[in-house]
Design goal:
The chain is an alpha+beta fold. Helix content is 33%, strand content 19%. The termini are far apart.
Length: 691
């Protein structure tokens, strides 16, 4: 642990707020004669031992012991608490730090840090982060993680939130992420045990939950600098998930959030054996308690579908502009509800809120990402811009996406990718290099207008980011091809994508190869790689492919640039019947042309096939879904447009599938995210008569 003595000027006695003296294993307040122990390097300012965690104290201690002994916190977590890895491993839980007011070298208090899901990613860019929690065991694990990951600016401290051991105005920013609703529940709790169980004793409280929450907010305000901020993330009492029957996130009971408090209390006592004290509020309710606590200026965002792992975080005043994006998440019942919901009500029924509260009434500093893009010089002419975070993919290596939205024009002006982890910026750097190359390669052609234009890439204030122009188009609704009545529209869209692909390949020709000379040794090597996983039937099919290729001696094929992720589900967009393509992290200057073709026309069929009964084979699936004609027509259309030798028609996709399953991908990309990178699917496709 970093030496807390470095920050001793900010530590005070939580009982009388007087300065403390430090000893070898304690802090001492001479004013009130209070002594606070340091347990395993963690100062303990609590009045009594308290415990709040998803798992038992015994399991946490086992996790701590194993992580320390093996010097590998991740290995220990996978062994002891694998079901909770998502709670702290990925840096995506701190995506919202890029909409915080930008303050270089800031001192941060993570109030209720628990596993450290926000503490560590925030510590990348902050001067100091004080991780505060009332559970020593979770702090010990956080401390081990911090040390093993090389962080020297994280200070774990055990304390309750209503009496903090810090002097007035010590922090630039205080984080209260999923914590405020719990501060009035002062009982030891093992969440996984209590989730469906009933407690044996009902604790009596002297204060209402609201008053206890206000007390905590006032105390957090006390330790915040005069021009500092509170970041609050929490559920909405009338969020649409609760209105449609999703149970309360804290007591696991349906509909209690928006019931009268006294009625919610009665129901919770009956079902759970304790009082209903995990209060959440509507937007108006949060405004009221924050103002009662002394905060002067507030900014609200809607977090969809949940603040813990949102796929979108949108400023309150812009939510009505993004109903389509919001409605794309959730099940059928929720989609029907959102479809009927008027746009102007969307913000009030957001499932979660992200709120930034200013201690003073001065205008907020620019959001961090806004400050960065301004420094990059790509939005000079725009004065009123807001960030909109969009993230459907988790993982520290995967970048966070952000729209820079012009509020006066009501449209995005730029698109950003931000590295979540300073240690994993390679995906952004690779894409920047690819976009530079593609920009020059396709300059002056129709393709140049249909792909992102790189505006900036680099590191600003230790953050790696990439900024492009915004392509004003949308994803084609290609969710369900099985038995679709939209087959004509789907075929039209596929042909437009093939038109783009053919132009893309013709404008990026690299060299001509002899089919037999090039592919025979490649297939031999690919078979050797796959052989341990192949069955006799597929092994024979690969040999038959080699025999076909051997007969194509003298047939020529042009290698060209490869997009690498030519996918109708995410990366192929459209507007007014024209196709646009984004995401160039897998772009290659040279490759076989059939790779992108296979992604385009095989990918949707394979995804739909995977969702069907395993008893159905791919050949029968195409027949039952009445898709075989569509599949063959697309393949034929490509060959006619591209002028590739027709003798390759029957082996093109088999070549591509072999390539996908043996290709070396960058470490930041999980091959499992490509449906075609699956040996079982390879076997199924090779057994089919359609590839």
């Amino acid at each position: 642990m970093p030496n807390l003595l470095n920050a001793i000027d900010g530590i005070v006695c939580p009982k009388c707020y007087k300065e403390v003296e430090s000893g070898d294993n304690y802090f001492l307040c001479e004013a009130c004669n209070s002594k606070f122990p340091i347990i395993n390097g963690i100062p303990d300012f609590r009045e009594k031992d308290e415990y709040w965690c998803n798992v038992s104290r015994e399991k946490m201690r086992r996790l701590i012991k194993l992580a320390d002994e093996k010097n590998d916190w991740r290995l220990a977590a996978k062994s002891v608490v694998p079901e909770y890895m998502a709670h702290f491993e990925g840096f995506e839980r701190a995506d919202t730090q890029f909409i915080w007011p930008h303050m270089p070298n800031m001192r941060v208090l993570d109030a209720g840090s628990m596993w450290g899901g926000l503490t560590l990613p925030v510590a990348q860019y902050a001067k100091e982060v004080f991780a505060l929690d009332k559970t020593v065991e979770t702090l010990s694990f956080l401390d081990i993680r911090a040390r093993q990951m090389g962080y020297e600016n994280i200070y774990p401290i055990a304390s309750t939130l209503d009496k903090l051991p810090f002097k007035d105005g010590y922090f630039d920013l205080v984080i209260l992420n999923g914590v405020l609703e719990w501060v009035a529940f002062r009982q030891n709790l093992i969440l996984e045990k209590q989730w469906n169980a009933k407690s044996k004793a009902i604790k009596k409280y002297e204060q209402s939950p609201e008053q206890m929450q206000i007390n905590v907010l006032k105390e957090l305000r006390r330790v915040t600098k005069p021009e500092g901020y509170l970041f609050l993330a929490i559920e909405n009492r009338v969020g649409y998930q609760y209105l449609t029957g999703y149970p309360d996130d804290h007591v696991n009971i349906k509909f209690v959030t928006f019931l009268p408090r006294f009625l919610a209390d009665i129901i919770t006592k009956i079902k759970r054996g304790f009082s209903y004290r995990t209060y959440v509020y509507s937007s108006i309710g949060y405004k009221n308690i924050l103002q009662k606590s002394g905060y002067k200026k507030l900014k609200f965002y809607g977090a969809f579908a949940h603040y813990i792992a949102p796929y979108a975080v949108i400023p309150f005043n812009l939510i009505k502009n993004f109903k389509g994006l919001i409605g794309s998440g959730g099940g059928k019942r929720l989609k029907l509800f959102l479809k009927a919901l008027p746009r102007f009500l969307m913000k009030y029924l957001s499932p979660s809120f992200v709120i930034i509260a200013g201690k003073s009434d001065k205008e907020f500093a620019d959001a961090k990402i806004i400050s960065l893009v301004k420094k990059a010089g790509v939005v000079k002419e725009v004065s009123e811009i807001e960030p909109i975070l969009i993230s459907r993919r988790a993982g520290s290596r995967i970048p966070l996406n952000c729209l820079i939205f012009d509020t006066s024009r009501r449209s995005p002006v730029a698109f950003c990718k931000i590295s979540r982890s300073r240690r994993h910026a390679e995906i952004i750097n690779d894409e920047a290099d690819n976009l530079k190359y593609a920009g020059e390669l396709f300059k002056g052609t129709v393709i140049a207008e249909r792909i992102p234009r790189l505006l900036y890439s680099g590191v600003i204030d230790n953050v790696t980011l990439l900024v492009t122009n915004y392509l004003d188009c949308e994803v084609f609704n290609f969710k369900n091809i099985k038995g679709s009545r939209k087959s004509a529209d789907i075929l039209k869209a596929l042909k437009k994508a093939i038109d783009f692909l053919v132009d893309f390949q013709k404008l990026s020709l690299v060299r001509e190869i002899d089919v037999s000379d090039y592919f025979l040794p490649k297939i031999k090597k690919q078979k050797e790689i796959l052989l341990p996983k192949l069955d006799d039937s597929t092994d024979k099919k690969i040999d038959e492919l080699s025999d076909v290729i051997a007969k194509l001696k003298g047939v020529k094929l042009n290698l060209s640039a490869v997009h690498g992720d030519f996918d109708f589900y995410h990366n192929i967009l459209h507007k007014n019947g024209e196709v646009y393509v984004v995401d160039f992290e897998h772009f290659e200057k040279e490759g076989i042309p059939f790779l992108d073709l296979a992604m385009l026309i095989l990918h949707p069929f394979v995804i739909s096939f995977k969702e069907t009964s395993k008893s159905v084979n791919f050949r029968d699936f195409l027949k039952v879904s009445r898709a075989e004609d569509l599949f063959r027509e697309c393949l034929g259309y490509y060959f006619n447009k591209s002028n590739i030798d027709k003798r390759l028609f029957d082996c093109a996709l088999r070549i591509a599938v072999l390539e996908q399953n043996t290709k070396e991908y960058p470490g930041y990309r999980d091959k499992k995210s490509f449906p075609l990178c699956d040996v079982e699917i390879l076997k199924e496709l090779f057994r089919s008569d359609y590839i």
